[in-house]
């Protein structure tokens, strides 16, 4: 149970992969996609979690998060109960200077979307931007995984061009 | 993680209280009230739980249920995240012949409503009906706690008269 502070960026090249020290396949669904009370079921390699998130702070940087590890077999059953629109992605961990980026490469209806997140200890914490880091999308609800499950990237990527 | 088989009845007198061997105050809220994927946070005396339920079987008797105990302090924070409309009730355990009834006396906007539930091992299991047991409401979505939180008894009890 904590407040999570993170910033989120689009990724403009796959150069991040060379610096990645861990890759995990993630499949996740949502028992509620309401940004005020998101309930997520995630299978992350050999582990599974149920995660509840509240609404973001006004600047989009901080968000209440509660998480419990649960058995993978239970997560599989709960995934069947989730709203339509599972998210499939590979998460790359990429060390950059003193920070670690979590870079998510999406598949399925979100193919083509790559998002990097960095977790910070305070909102104004300084960090080094790697060359592959693109536009910041912190607080942009379209890029919430809960929203991508309902309204995937394939539906609106043309509007960005 | 289980399939719960239960039957639900209205209660027509407070005679059940004399046979009750345990009473617990319950406060609960919902992170999702959708009957297909209900997510409930409950504080039950000194214990707290997060419970996820699926849709009922066609006859309303069986329902998938997954439950985890969580610390009460975490449940208190999660209750704040829930949809408006907390449920407050006292649960009485009442032994009757070979079965135990859970009788919920509601407060707040559901004042006046008393519901008895009996959990069965199989759908056609026979049980003795106590004198205070009223009309069966198994499968009637209005009496789901998730629905009572959104559309409480005070709103529609006049329609029953």
Structure notes:
2 copies of one chain form a homodimer. By secondary structure, chain A is mainly β. The first copy, chain A, has one domain: Beta Barrel (Hypothetical Protein Pfu-838710-001). Chain A is built from 3 helices and 9 strands, in the order E-E-E-E-E-H-E-E-E-E-H-H. In chain A, strands 1-5-4-3-2-6-7-8 form an 8-stranded antiparallel barrel. In chain A, a hairpin with a 5-residue loop joins strand 4 (47-56) and strand 5. The longest helix of chain A has 10 residues, at 72-81. The model of chain A has no long low-confidence stretch (mean pLDDT 93).
The share of residues in helices of chain A is 10-25%
Largest interface: A-B, 20 and 20 residues
Radius of gyration computed on alpha carbons of chain A: 15 Å
CATH 2nd-level architecture of chain A? Beta Barrel
- The tally of strands of chain A reads 9
CATH overall fold name of chain A: Hypothetical Protein Pfu-838710-001
SS summary, helix count of chain A: 3
**Overall average residue pLDDT of chain A:** 93
The quaternary structure here is homodimer
Shape label of chain A: globular
**Taking strands numbered 1, 2, ... along the chain, how are they ordered across the largest sheet of chain A?**
1-5-4-3-2-6-7-8
β-strand percent of chain A reads: over 45%
Which structural class best describes the helix and strand composition of chain A?
A: mainly beta
Low-confidence stretches of chain A: none
Largest sheet of chain A: 8 strands, antiparallel, barrel
CATH class call of chain A: Mainly Beta
Number of domains of chain A: 1
N-to-C order of helices and strands of chain A: EEEEEHEEEEHH
Domain CYTH (chains A, B): 2-150
Protein name (chains A, B): CYTH domain-containing protein
Pfam family, one (chains A, B): CYTH
Organism (chains A, B): Antarcticibacterium arcticum
């Amino acid at each position: 149970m904590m407040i999570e502070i993170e910033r989120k960026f689009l990724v403009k090249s796959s150069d991040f992969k060379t610096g990645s020290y861990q890759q995990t396949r993630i499949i996740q669904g949502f028992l509620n996609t309401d940004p005020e009370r998101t309930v997520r079921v995630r299978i992350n390699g050999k582990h599974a979690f149920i995660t509840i998130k509240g609404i973001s702070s006004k600047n989009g940087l901080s968000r209440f998060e509660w998480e419990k590890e649960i058995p993978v077999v239970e997560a599989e059953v709960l995934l069947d109960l989730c709203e339509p629109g599972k998210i499939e992605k590979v998460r790359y961990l990429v060390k950059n200077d003193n920070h670690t980026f979590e870079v998510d490469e999406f598949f399925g209806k979100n193919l083509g979307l790559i998002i990097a997140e960095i977790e910070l200890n305070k909102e104004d914490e300084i960090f080094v931007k790697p060359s592959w880091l693109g536009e910041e999308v912190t607080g942009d609800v379209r890029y919430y995984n809960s929203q991508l499950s309902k309204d995937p990237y394939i539906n609106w990527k043309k509007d960005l061009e």
